[in-house]
Specification:
By secondary structure, this protein is mainly α. The chain has 4 helices and no strands. Helix 3 packs antiparallel against helix 4.
């Protein structure tokens, strides 16, 4: 995702979630890839899923805030 290769990052993240569904970081990686692809609502859910496994994760909480902000921004523009 950091390289801007969001489709590949999403594939990798989905494989990580499938391999270790309780690993919050995998859900966070999925959320970051989805944000890069402009899928804020799906990214929000990915971060929520991650927080369900790692409720104290600051990175997941920050990602969730960004996804929500982007989703709300998209709704306001429409």
């Amino acid at each position: 995702a950091k390289l801007g290769q969001f489709h590949s990052a999403l594939e990798d993240a989905e494989a990580a979630v499938a391999a270790r569904p309780s690993w919050g970081k995998a859900h966070g990686r999925r959320g970051a890839a989805l944000l890069g692809l402009g899928e804020a609502a799906q990214a929000e859910q990915a971060y929520l899923d991650g927080l369900g496994h790692e409720p104290g994760s600051a990175q997941l909480a920050e990602g969730l805030e960004e996804a929500r902000a982007r989703r709300q921004g998209a709704v306001e523009v429409s």
